């Protein structure tokens, strides 16, 4: 999904929020993820990751996810009591508080040689060499689902990894490269791993909310 598509989905959800609430959807607030433990990452990466989770949650018609801004002076990660207060102030039933525990990217290069067989110089094959790049990104995220009316959160962790292989290409991207205005990260191993992690988080959140609300 492109950044433009994400913004479109966000706008449509905002316009339909009153209708959805009337139909009994459970409202969920998502604050920016805490990325302070990841070197080179800033606030923007945390906001974009929260947006990824929200977009995935939009696929569940029983949930109404919203991005929630942090109060002035608040620091991540939010304490459970502060998250509950923010949920009540924001008029949502649950608050999602996430922390990035790991976002690593490893790259290796190997020389790759291929031989084209054909009628070249009396039938001799022509050798072609290139650099084979293998890049693997791994992410681990800790998530807390905090009810606004209590201080009894549920916590879980999600891990994902993705590997890309290419000849003469550099797919090396870190979490710090996250930017709301640049869709290029979505094609990198890190972007793909984070997108898959966001999908896992959305499924787990939906299951837990259903149980808590029953």
Task: Write a brief structural summary.
With 214 residues, the protein is α/β, with parallel strands linked by helices. 32% of the residues lie in helices and 32% in strands.
Percentage of residues assigned to helices: 25-40%
Predict the CATH topology: Rossmann fold
CATH class bucket:
Alpha Beta
Total count of domains: 1
Q: Determine the number of helices (DSSP H or I, runs of at least 4 residues).
A: 5
CA radius of gyration: 22 Å
Strand order of the largest sheet: 2-1-3-4-5
Largest sheet: 5 strands, mixed
For the record, the CATH architecture stands as 3-Layer(aba) Sandwich
Oligomer: single chain
Query: Given the C-alpha coordinates, what overall shape results?
Result: elongated
Task: Write the SSE topology.
Blueprint: H1 3-15, H2 17-22, E1 26-30, H3 43-57, E2 63-67, H4 80-89, E3 94-116, E4 126-147, E5 154-167, H5 189-213
Parallel strand pairs: 1-2, 1-3
Antiparallel strand pairs: 3-4, 4-5
What does this protein structure show overall?
This protein is an alpha/beta fold and 214 residues long. It has a single domain, classed as Rossmann fold (3-Layer(aba) Sandwich), CATH 3.40.50. The chain has a five-stranded mixed sheet. Helix 3 crosses helix 5. The longest helix has 25 residues. It is elongated and about 60 Å long.
Task: Give short descriptive properties of this protein.
single chain; 214 residues; alpha/beta; Rossmann fold; five-stranded mixed β-sheet; 5 helices; 5 strands; 32% strand
């Amino acid at each position: 999904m492109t950044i433009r598509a994400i913004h479109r989905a966000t706008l449509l959800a905002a316009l339909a929020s009153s209708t959805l609430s009337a139909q009994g959807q459970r409202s969920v607030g998502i604050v920016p993820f805490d990325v302070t433990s990841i070197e080179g990452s800033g606030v923007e990466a945390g906001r974009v990751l929260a947006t990824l989770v929200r977009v995935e949650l939009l696929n569940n018609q029983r949930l109404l996810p919203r991005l929630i801004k942090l109060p002035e002076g608040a620091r991540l990660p939010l304490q459970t009591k502060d998250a509950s207060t923010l949920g009540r102030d924001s008029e949502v039933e649950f608050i999602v508080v996430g922390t990035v525990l790991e976002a690593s990217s490893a790259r290796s290069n190997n020389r790759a040689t291929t031989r084209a067989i054909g009628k070249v110089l009396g039938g001799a094959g022509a050798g072609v060499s290139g650099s084979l790049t293998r890049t693997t990104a791994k992410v681990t995220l800790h998530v807390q689902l905090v009810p606004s009316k209590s201080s009894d959160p549920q916590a879980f962790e999600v891990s994902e990894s993705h590997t890309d292989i290419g000849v003469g290409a550099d797919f090396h991207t870190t979490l710090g490269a996250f930017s709301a205005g640049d869709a290029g990260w979505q094609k990198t191993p890190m972007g793909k791993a984070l997108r898959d992690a966001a999908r896992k988080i959305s499924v787990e959140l939906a299951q837990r909310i259903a149980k808590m609300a029953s």
